[in-house]
Write a structure and sequence with these properties.
The chain is of the alpha+beta class. The chain has helices at 2-21, 41-52, and strands at residues 26-34, 61-67, 69-72, 79-82, 102-105, 109-116. Helix 1 (2-21) crosses helix 2. The structure holds zinc ion. Residues 73, 75-76, 78, 92, 94-95, 97 line the site of zinc ion.
């Protein structure tokens, strides 16, 4: 599963960070997901829980920060938002241009922050 490998790399990043700062207990981890980053937030949570079960990180909680899609019209420069992948093809609310919108926000997939002791 796609989300499983992402959960694995997030956990790996958290482990690296904890090693650097001398922490052993992972408590919370915040991940930023853009609306069209291709990761299903609920499956990512499920995968994360499966991964940490019966490990030293069993108590760790994954928090997901969802970023809506923001597009910039290539024709008039108007910035507008949308719900998901489909919004890429909707006409600009200002000028009606349908093609070539630039994704300003929505592809993010980041380990935002973690809390560990
Ligand atoms: Zn426009």
């Amino acid at each position: 599963m796609h989300e499983m490998s992402i959960a694995q790399s997030l956990l790996q990043m958290a482990e690296d960070e904890m090693t650097r700062s001398g922490c052993t207990r992972l408590e919370k981890i915040w991940v930023t997901l853009g609306a069209i980053c291709g990761v299903e937030p609920e499956s990512l949570k499920v995968c994360f829980d499966i991964l940490v079960r019966d490990t030293a990180y069993a108590e760790a909680k994954l928090h997901i920060i969802k970023l809506p899609l923001r597009l910039r019209c290539s024709s008039c420069g108007n910035i507008f938002g949308g719900e998901g992948q489909d919004a890429l093809w909707m006409p600009c609310p200002a000028c009606g241009e349908q093609l070539g919108h630039v994704v300003e926000q929505g592809r993010e997939l980041l380990l935002n922050r973690l809390e560990a002791r």
